[in-house]
Amino acid sequence: MAEAPGGVNQQTAAFGALTGYTGAGSAIGGCESVRRADGLGEQRMSQASVIVIGNEKGGAGKSTIAIHTAVALLHAGAKVAVLDLDLRQQTLGHFFANRRAWLDANDAAAPMPIEHPVSSDGAALAAAPEAEAEARFGEAFAESSRGVDFVLIDTPGADTAISRMAHGLADLIVTPMNDSFVDFDMLGVVDPVTLELVRHSLYSETVWNSRKARAAKDRKMIDWVVLRNRLAPTEARNRKRLDERVQALSRKVGFRVGPGLRDRVIYRELFPFGLTVADLSPGIRPVAMSLQHVAARQELRAVMTALGISGLDGEILAAE
Question: Is 240 a domain residue?
Fold first, then answer.
């Protein structure tokens, strides 16, 4: 992202003039039962809304957010296709394979997404030339976009050609970040003496370039939400400092800030079964229920609200 005269604020103003971005609201549409909180997406969209879970730093909770967002949308009645671009790790793919196996073994039913693996050999494709990876992703994306309400894409914790390609296709980019200046460093750079925000960083530049290219191509806005993941349970001085820098950067580069998921055991212990807290019911209960599950459901509802998606308040998340 080239520095404009006058700094990042001037760039944001220029981006707003180009795209109409105001820093508020959500750009995603939805299906009849899953809609924008402002009501603008109540009618079924003719084109799938694309949600990209992205952050070039590993360990920020991208796959956890991707899994829970996909399952919540499924339970809300949406037709969801998922693409896992972390070609080596394939956490999203493993989760839904676990889900299918557990449901079959226990004669239980739960909604499943449409899965379109980019390659049967992800590790080989990860080592292939960029042009080949881009072509394979393009084919998988075109196929997965047909007849669905949402395409959810989980990206690797690195800068890759297909990750950049996915960002350019997004209607909504969701970036989880841990409660740490280590994670913030991928978004913004602070002065080591004063801790004042100095400039944007690498991943902010990736998103900026994607938004600029999308606006120039079809004058559509890519919405961007940063989720504060794994927040510390107690208020601390470091957290306050980080909050201030996140808010300052959000005003400069144009993202919304929302709550993420805390570091709860329940999210990890349900993964081997391919389940989330949204799945738990009298017929699906692989672990003992506790108050932690109630809190986790509330967190998931708050995440969906932050993403601008409503229609999730029925039996799916309210059966505490």
Answer: no
